[in-house]
């Protein structure tokens, strides 16, 4: 079965094939507060008053951004902004008398002022992070009604009231402005002696901290530690201790233990602790979202008064030798730099929790292991989703594109503090990102101190983009280029800028997209003209190929290739995003899936090249494109494969072996289309067939096919849940017709409403009940009502047979204090299984250390060319002899020189290399994203001489231009552009494995 067939056959169902994890409602202290809200867009200052009449307001259930219907309809800089009010009436439970009451907001954009029964409760302003408010003194006991009103303001220019300072991350370029209350809200009811919430802003509390230590991965052992901050608001001294129980993924209790009893004075806050060594643990891993439920029960005078359930996983991490270790196995980072909004058409970021799982699991299915959320802290729903699907996260706090000072820096540290406290129990977070660009060492130390104070044992590295020579950061890596290190891991925070609209297969398929067309015609948010981005505007063929080409430089420097290695990188982005666009559409098309998460060819290309922790573990092949052309078409075919040799067949007739390029690309020139099938077979070095992919020609379109993707266990009748309805144009055998572009008319009846999808065209067809398929397929959303029943969806198109499908919705708890949390019963994705115990890579070469170097020019800087610091370099002076001689630590059979030369993406240097005086290479260095490898016959020696033979030559073959027009000079200073130099940033020498 081919990769594509596996994906469609396996589908979304696998994510939910593991047992459900129902939450016990007895003793519940946390309620879903999402239901029963009313919304008014516009200012209504009297809405905070109890007597205000809100009968004419719109009824909404959260999460709900008041402008979310504009998602993908307009550029984010044009999203509607202003004041909006949310209002809700509710009763507390009878048993809440004399209890503490807290409200938890996962986030309000940008500002939220909270009023309870007409009284001001608090204001939160950073627009990114969760916050909590103690409303105990403001609420009325049962059976009295309570009124909560929230005033929101999502002004792009919003300024903090106390300081008049803007927030750096409230930026039109990337922070999609879904205003109001786009995230979940919860209500907590607790005794007066209680475990605090992990909500530092307002409450000043840190909650419960769960972590593991003393790992023995091979024997499946670790010590589980629980530290819970407890506060006594009784008027008397109490004796308290923790009782901890741990349940596995199937709900079976695997451990129960007590902590030491302590005494708490009135109004005193202390940390209570408990720990126990456990065995037979299942460790959380990539694609193995194994989670335990840790229940921290507070016992006061031997009576249970408060319970906190924490879903968490246990894993061991290390960050050393330039590599990342997960459960004692090296893992090379490969994944996506994704906008934190993670948005969808017409609903923005306010997706139901299962839909977050579906989207994030697709990153894992593409063999991505890391998502780097960009600029802003992700919301808790996505954080918890990554736990379930086994996707590693890099969690930022909040920033724009540079270091800042004063109050704006303080805002960043406060956000990082709050985010760490809130998310430190989530095992999928392995990196804390302190900045989207490098920050000062002083600021890096501040961030490290915050991590050490609030998450000292969580096994997470803190760093920032760049930080290449930092002595404080625990990881780093540039945006577009490859970095290597023998010290802290270096992984590229964004390594691809290329785009390809899903609608465009290639230049031979309607609408016949030529490479580079569809360029920019708009301006930046600051009013400047967007630089010509033609080089980024691909069709699906070229975009997928570019994905593979861009990854090659990182793969070439992977762990196992020496003492200095790359720890990988993330491709920007995963799903097309309504931000920072370059093409003629008002959204970015860099995704490997489109906004409705329909895969593009790049998705399958990544499945092939990323299949493994470091080295390839399952050989695979993918033919780029389709096999439905006009009979006159002759085109080049590209196969992505990890095999050593690939052979192509058309209707079982061999066209020979492909020409290999960049290791994973196999090209076949001038292949003539013939109806039937095209098949690629991959072979290992011994000639054994190890993988294949086949595409068959579809017949003429005759009808439509509808399928659905729904919440596991059924679509909820809560007026908020969604179902994805996929429509395909198919032939008489039910095969998708890959070149179809038919217009589809949708009709929705019953207990559901039409939401819509997206396609290229007017307003991107947002909200339209008529939209075309692209490449034979498209998707829409339908939303449930609050009444359980059947949603009927009909799809029709001229000259094609119509079809219909039904979705059944199930009743759920819609109480204003609902006992059903949004993520209840969502199971884990564990398809990849536990961390393998075998090594993740084989050594491919042996590094030979350098002990010194001699040159007639700039001897003082010579060590900078091999100091494991990519921000230093050595170079010749203008009139000096361009030669340097390195002395190796031992005599070696040298066969490779690896160099990072300043200007690596645009300059070719004519050099000569000699080993102990014997010339082994003469020629121009190739362009790259950082490092170049010069191969030659193994030559025994201890001294290696590098000589520049002539002036460097410029090339624009690697076109990396920012949207603003900024061009990174890749280590070339302006003063050096016209001077003949050989600027060596880093140099390494290797001999073959014996």
UniProtKB/TrEMBL annotation:
It comes from the Bacteria. Residues 218-315 form the Glycoside hydrolase family 2 immunoglobulin-like beta-sandwich domain. PANTHER family: BETA-GALACTOSIDASE, BETA-MANNOSIDASE. It comes from Flavobacterium calami. InterPro entries: Beta-gal/glucu_dom_sf (IPR036156), Beta-mannosidase-like_N2 (IPR054593), DUF4982 (IPR032311), Galactose-bd-like_sf (IPR008979), GH (IPR017853), GH2_Domain-Containing (IPR051913), Glyco_hydro2_dom5 (IPR040605), Glyco_hydro_2_cat (IPR006103). Residues 716-805 form the Glycoside hydrolase family domain. Belongs to the glycosyl hydrolase 2 family. This is DUF4982 domain-containing protein. Gene3D superfamilies: Galactose-binding domain-like, Glycosidases, Immunoglobulins. SUPFAM superfamilies: (Trans)glycosidases (SSF51445), beta-Galactosidase/glucuronidase domain (SSF49303), Galactose-binding domain-like (SSF49785). Residues 319-456 form the Glycoside hydrolase family 2 catalytic domain. The lineage of its organism: Bacteria, Pseudomonadati, Bacteroidota, Flavobacteriia, Flavobacteriales. Residues 635-691 form the DUF4982 domain. Residues 84-171 form the Beta-mannosidase-like galactose-binding domain. Keywords: Glycosidase, Hydrolase.
């Amino acid at each position: 079965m081919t990769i594509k067939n596996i994906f469609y056959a396996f589908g979304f169902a696998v994510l939910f094939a593991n047992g459900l994890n129902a939450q016990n409602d007895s003793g519940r202290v946390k309620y879903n507060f999402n239901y029963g809200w009313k919304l008014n867009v516009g200012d209504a200052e009297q809405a905070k008053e109890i007597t205000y009449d809100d009968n004419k307001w719109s009824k909404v259930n959260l999460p709900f951004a008041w402008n979310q219907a504009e998602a993908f309809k307009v550029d984010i800089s044009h999203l509607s902004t202003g004041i909006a009010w949310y209002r809700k009436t509710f009763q507390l439970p009878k048993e809440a008398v004399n209890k503490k009451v807290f409200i938890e907001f996962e986030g309000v954009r940008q500002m939220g002022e909270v009023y309870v029964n007409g009284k001001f409760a608090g204001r939160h302003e950073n627009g990114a992070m969760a916050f909590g408010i103690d409303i105990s003194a403001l609420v009325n006991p049962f059976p009295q009604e309570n009124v909560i009103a929230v005033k929101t303001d999502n002004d792009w220019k919003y300024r903090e009231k106390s300081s008049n300072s803007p927030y750096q991350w409230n930026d039109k370029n990337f922070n999609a402005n879904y205003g109001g209350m786009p995230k979940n809200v919860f209500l907590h009811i607790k005794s007066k002696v209680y475990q605090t919430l992990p909500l530092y802003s307002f409450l000043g509390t840190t909650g419960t901290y769960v972590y593991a230590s003393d790992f023995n991965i091979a024997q499946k052992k670790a010590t589980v530690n629980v530290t819970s901050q407890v506060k006594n608001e009784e008027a008397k001294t109490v004796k308290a201790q923790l009782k901890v129980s741990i349940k596995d993924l199937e709900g079976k209790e695997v451990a129960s233990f007590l902590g030491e009893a302590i005494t708490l004075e009135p109004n005193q806050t202390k940390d209570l602790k408990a720990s126990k060594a456990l065995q037979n643990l299942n460790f959380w891993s990539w694609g193995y979202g194994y989670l335990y439920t840790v229940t921290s029960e507070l016992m006061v005078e031997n009576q249970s008064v408060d319970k906190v359930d924490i879903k968490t996983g246990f894993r061991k991490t290390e960050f050393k030798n330039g590599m990342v270790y997960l459960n004692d196995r090296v893992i090379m980072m490969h994944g996506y730099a994704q906008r934190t909004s993670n948005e969808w058409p017409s609903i923005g970021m306010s997706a139901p929790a299962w839909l977050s799982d579906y989207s994030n699991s697709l990153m894992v299915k593409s063999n991505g292991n890391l998502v780097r959320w960009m600029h802003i802290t992700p919301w808790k729903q996505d954080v918890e989703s990554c736990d379930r699907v086994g996707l590693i996260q890099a969690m930022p706090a909040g920033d724009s594109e540079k270091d800042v000072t004063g109050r704006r820096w303080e805002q960043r540290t406060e956000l990082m503090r709050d985010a760490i406290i809130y998310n430190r129990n989530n095992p999928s977070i392995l990196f804390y990102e302190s900045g989207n660009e490098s920050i000062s060492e002083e600021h890096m130390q501040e961030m490290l101190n915050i991590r050490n104070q609030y998450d000292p044992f969580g096994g997470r590295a803190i760093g920032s983009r760049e930080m290449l020579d930092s002595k404080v950061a625990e990881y780093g890596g540039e945006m577009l280029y490859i970095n290597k290190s023998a010290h802290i891991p270096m992984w590229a925070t964004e390594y691809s800028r290329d785009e390809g609209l899903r609608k465009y297969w290639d230049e031979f398929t309607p609408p016949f997209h030529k490479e580079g067309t569809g360029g920019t015609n708009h301006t930046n948010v600051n009013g400047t003209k967007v630089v010509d981005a033609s080089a980024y505007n691909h069709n699906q063929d070229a975009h997928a190929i570019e994905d593979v080409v861009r990854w090659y430089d990182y793969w070439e420097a992977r762990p196992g290739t020496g003492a200095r290695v790359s720890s990988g990188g993330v491709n920007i982005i995963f799903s097309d995003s309504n931000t920072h666009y370059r093409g003629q559409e008002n959204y970015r098309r860099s995704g490997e899936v489109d906004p409705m998460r329909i895969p593009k060819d790049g998705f399958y290309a990544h499945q092939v090249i990323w299949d493994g922790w470091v080295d390839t573990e399952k050989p695979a092949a993918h033919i780029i494109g389709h096999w439905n052309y006009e009979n006159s078409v002759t085109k080049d075919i590209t196969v992505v494969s990890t095999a050593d040799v690939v052979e192509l067949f058309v209707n079982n007739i061999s066209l020979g072996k492909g020409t290999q390029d960049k290791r994973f690309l196999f090209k076949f020139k001038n292949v003539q289309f013939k109806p039937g099938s095209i098949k690629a077979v991959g072979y290992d070095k011994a000639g054994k067939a190890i993988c294949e992919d086949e595409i068959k020609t579809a017949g003429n379109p005759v009808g439509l096919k509808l399928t659905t993707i729904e919440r596991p266990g059924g679509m909820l009748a809560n007026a908020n849940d969604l179902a994805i309805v996929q429509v395909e144009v198919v032939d008489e055998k039910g095969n998708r017709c890959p070149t179809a572009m038919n217009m589809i008319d949708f009709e929705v009846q019953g207990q559901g409403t039409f939401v819509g999808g997206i396609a290229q065209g007017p307003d991107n067809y947002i909200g339209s009940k008529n939209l075309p398929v692209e490449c034979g397929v498209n998707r829409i959303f339908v939303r449930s009502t609050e009444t359980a029943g059947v949603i009927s969806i009909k799809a029709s198109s001229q000259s094609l047979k119509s079809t219909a499908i039904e979705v059944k919705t199930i009743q759920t708890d819609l109480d204003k204090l609902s006992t059903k949390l949004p993520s209840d019963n969502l199971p884990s994705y564990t398809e990849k299984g536990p961390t393998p115990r075998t090594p993740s890579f084989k050594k491919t070469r042996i590094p030979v250390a350098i002990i010194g170097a001699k040159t007639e020019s700039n001897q003082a800087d010579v060590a900078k060319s091999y100091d494991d610091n990519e921000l230093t370099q050595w170079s010749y002076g203008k009139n000096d002899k361009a030669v340097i001689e390195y002395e190796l630590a031992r005599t070696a059979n040298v066969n490779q020189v690896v160099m990072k030369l300043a200007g690596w993406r645009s300059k070719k240097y004519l050099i000569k290399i000699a080993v102990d005086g014997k010339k082994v290479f003469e020629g121009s260095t190739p362009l790259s994203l950082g490092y170049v490898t010069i191969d030659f016959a193994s030559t025994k020696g201890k001294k290696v001489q590098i000589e520049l033979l002539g002036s460097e030559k410029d090339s624009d073959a690697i076109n990396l231009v920012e949207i603003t027009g900024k061009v990174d000079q890749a280590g070339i200073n302006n003063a050096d552009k016209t001077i003949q130099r050989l600027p060596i940033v880093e140099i390494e020498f290797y001999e073959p494995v014996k």
